[in-house]
Amino acid sequence: MKKQEETEVLALETLGNAPPSSQLSEPLDYIFAEHFRQRVLCNALDEIADQEQPDRQMIEAVLRFLRVDFAPHMLDEEHDLFPMLRRRAEPEDRIDDVIGQLTQEHAADRLDAKLITEGLAKVLAGKAVTGVASSLAKLLHRFAENERNHLTLENAIILPLARIRLTADDVRNLAQRMAARRGVDLKELGDAV
Ligand SMILES: [Fe+2]
Ligand SMILES: [Fe+2]
Q1: From the CA of 119, how far away is ligand 2's center (Å)?
Q2: Residues surrounding ion ligand 1 at CB below 5 Å
Q3: Which fold has domain 3-189?
Q4: Residue extents of the structural domains in the chain
Q5: What does the pLDDT look like over 2-58, one tens digit per residue?
Q6: Rounded to the nearest whole angstrom, what is the distance from the C-alpha of residue 81 to the centroid of ligand 1?
Q7: Relative to the CA of 84, which of 38, 51, 159, 162 has its CA 20 to 30 Å away?
């Protein structure tokens, strides 16, 4: 298999498969794994943006990811992780501004994700085009760039701080909330959560 094909197969696998449910018992690891998938999404969007001949399989994988996996992740953060972190953070952590910024970015990303979903669905239907000069390409690149910066901030500041500040109870609650959001019963996994 050529390197390009290998990269494509790996990207399709990563976008198509959420982390295993058992990993929900370590919710911060689960979020970190989702961030990796989002980086793969960004690379896929950059590739798709400049293609004159759209890669339909990759577009379908991107659409599925944006429709199924993207929203729950933002809810994990906005409804659960961020409020917990605000409660537990010390004043010297100065986390309020960072969380405020990340929440604003989520709002912008939601809008872009909706436009991207609509645009790529039209490409699949033959009613819109990608390619360097297209308006869709600009949108895809913008989203990818914003999202990479967002992920860097969350991986560098939010997750390390959460590992220090959240209590064992917080982590259990976070696990349960994230599992419920995905219709997973943690007890059935036989985990001590
Ligand atoms: Fe995130
Ligand atoms: Fe986020």
Answers
A1: 23
A2: 154
A3: Four Helix Bundle (Hemerythrin (Met), subunit A) (1.20.120)
A4: 3-189
A5: 887 888 999 999 999 999 999 999 999 999 999 999 999 999 999 999 999 999 999
A6: 10
A7: 38
Sign for the CA dihedral angle at 185, 19, 150, 71 comes to: negative
Residues in the chain, how many? Answer: 193
Q: Identify whether the C-beta of residue 100 lies closer than 8 Å to the C-beta of residue 86.
A: no
**Assigned token pair, 64:** 């599925």
Cα(124) to centroid(ligand 1), Å: 28
Residues of the chain with pLDDT under 50: 192-193
- 């809810």: which residue's tokens? 75
**Nearest one of 39, 62, 69 to 116, comparing CA atoms:** 62
Q: What are phi and psi of 162, to 5 degrees?
A: -60, -40
| Count of H-run helices and E-run strands, the chain | 9, 0
Instruction: Give me ligand 1 centre to Cα 44, in Å.
Output: 18
